[in-house]
Amino acid sequence: MAPPIHFITGNANKLREVKAILEPKIEIQSQSLDLEEVQGTIEEIANWKCRRAADLVNGPVLVEDTALCFNALGGLPGPYIKWFLDKTGHQGLNNLLAAYEDKSAEAVCTFAYSPGPGHDPIIFQGRTPGRIVPARGPSNFERWPGWDPVFEYEGKTYAEMESSEKNQISHRARALKKLQTWFESQQGTSA
């Protein structure tokens, strides 16, 4: 059996969501690392985080980066949503789009996997289209990503969904399904 993969997160709720989707086929262990935040595209950020984590852990790692892209703003705040939300709150995210008719957005989750130091990360990305709405429902996460109440998919915000429902359609679930398919294709080969 393959060694467990170190999922680099300090967020217990995010860990629970990843484990619910990947286990028991892929064993996940949580490891919290304080990785420097870098600027770049969604893919560049995930790639850098994965390389750095693989060096620090000296083994297989999985990192995740989440973005919320507003179409009216050319994809911003994108991977910087954490800081936008921290500074503006839910109402501030809505205010960013106040001057625009287009409230559409895309939730993007990028996972990067590396079997260890010196290996190029493999990127798995999931995208869920939606729109930005005034906050509804409780926050599913005690901290990041706290934008669940303002991201609506087919009439419900992520915060209004049960975990099992969200795990079927979320950007994270879509990325994890790609990762799971890739791991299944690697069984019997040297991944």
From TrEMBL:
Instruction: Indicate the enzyme's highest-level EC class.
Output: hydrolase
The entry sums up its family as follows: Belongs to the HAM1 NTPase family.
* Major place of residence: cytoplasm
Which cofactors is this protein said to need?
Mg(2+); Mn(2+)
What catalytic reaction does the record list? dITP + H2O = dIMP + diphosphate + H(+); XTP + H2O = XMP + diphosphate + H(+); ITP + H2O = IMP + diphosphate + H(+)
The note on the cofactor says: Binds 1 divalent metal cation per subunit; can use either Mg(2+) or Mn(2+).
Q: Where in the cell is it found?
A: Cytoplasm; Nucleus
Q: Name one Pfam family in it.
A: Ham1p_like
Task performed by this protein: Pyrophosphatase that hydrolyzes non-canonical purine nucleotides such as inosine triphosphate (ITP), deoxyinosine triphosphate (dITP) or xanthosine 5'-triphosphate (XTP) to their respective monophosphate derivatives. The enzyme does not distinguish between the deoxy- and ribose forms. Probably excludes non-canonical purines from RNA and DNA precursor pools, thus preventing their incorporation into RNA and DNA and avoiding chromosomal lesions.
Listed Gene3D superfamilies: 3.90.950.10
Binding positions for Mg(2+)? E37, D65
Q: Where does ITP bind?
A: T9, G10, N11, A12, N13, K14, K49, D65, T66, K166, H171, R172
The UniProt keyword set, sorted, is:
Cytoplasm, Hydrolase, Magnesium, Manganese, Metal-binding, Nucleotide metabolism, Nucleotide-binding, Nucleus
Q: What does the annotation say about its assembly with partners?
A: Homodimer.
EC number of the protein? 3.6.1.66
Instruction: Give the protein name, as stated in the record.
Output: Inosine triphosphate pyrophosphatase
